[in-house]
DNA sequence: CCGGATCCGAATCGATACTG
DNA sequence: CAGTATCGATTCGGATCCGG
């Protein structure tokens, strides 16, 4: 157990001892969306071995990052403590930083509801949104469907359950102003590599219904600059 | 190699694939202080196996985070790329977050020059410093000696070479307004758990020379609030 | 179905030794 | 100074199994 210690008395070291182990940060990412059951986490992290999930949740609890809470009469959720929730700006900043180095998706890469929710949060530009009229989008990426409502600087994202009826949370009523479907290539819209028109032309995105003109607003509301160059170093 | 992939197409995931491996974040932390040679890094991370350091540096270069640069005629340094340097606010925020969960130092824990430098940066309160007169401290923690100069919102930290050859080799000391020495317990001063007077009384800190009254200014310039409670969960 | 625990082979890490 | 090489100790990944 002491083998995990980095042997330094330092805040950064303590932080990575708490949330630096493999998978831990992704568990935190998903819990930032909301409390999750063990099975939810396992589904949202399809490649995590179950024993690792179990171990990480124990460690995160010991570290005061995560708490177990009963749900209804039977059932159980994991949720972030107040201390754990303070990681939100850090995880968002990390997501923004990592976004810029994302390449094309690997053949086995998936987009989960929680990861897309957090990705939109990282890309959200409150300043840009404040200058636009309120908008209500329904975004589909792969199997994931999200209702994304932007009103001034306020962002609200709800996950639409595609295979099953919604659980607990009340879903937005009424139709979205714009419904569109995309693949992982939506990254290139958010990075500004493609304009909405180009994205449609290149088939990375398709409008299902509603006002296609709102795509411009979507693209300026959710945006992460690609740097001039983030080259992988040559050998 | 593909075994390292988390199988998700997401910015956070990409980020932890780049800098989430064991030791990687600490390498970045040290490089945020300045370019470092291989040997410097090894010294600053006493417990890192040399093959791991070597591997991480290669991975960080492939990820576009770190670059190798020649130094003088012979010699070699590792330094952050522009992209890597953008991690600075994230690492500082992580340090601030982790600081609050730090307990007492383990028997083998060390404080290195780079980790203390970054710790002071994380704790620096520009707003508090702006209201105080400029001050020039010399801080000793264990073997580490730092020259810490605060002028308004500007902070400058220089590392004084501690393993000074024989006692005669005096470094640019003596000019600081206040010279003091502490142990790891300096954490309790920065957290506000102890006032400067209490820290001296409890022997966690000793004024070597200069104006002891400046300790108040130091404590308000470098401060990280401990939350009301950051409890470790019970079993 | 939920919430894990157990087992085992594969990959990684840690410690030390050695080299250009 | 700047790393490789080696090898035992851990951890991770994948699959299966188990009690409510």
UniProtKB/TrEMBL annotation, chains A, B:
This is Winged helix-turn-helix transcriptional regulator. Pfam families: HxlR (PF01638). PANTHER family: TRANSCRIPTIONAL REGULATOR, MARR FAMILY (PTHR33204), TRANSCRIPTIONAL REGULATORY PROTEIN (PTHR33204:SF18). InterPro entries: HTH_HxlR, WH-like_DNA-bd_sf, WH_DNA-bd_sf. Keywords: DNA-binding, Transcription, Transcription regulation. It comes from Microbacterium terregens. The lineage of its organism: Bacteria, Bacillati, Actinomycetota, Actinomycetes, Micrococcales. Residues 10-106 form the HTH hxlR-type domain. It comes from the Bacteria.
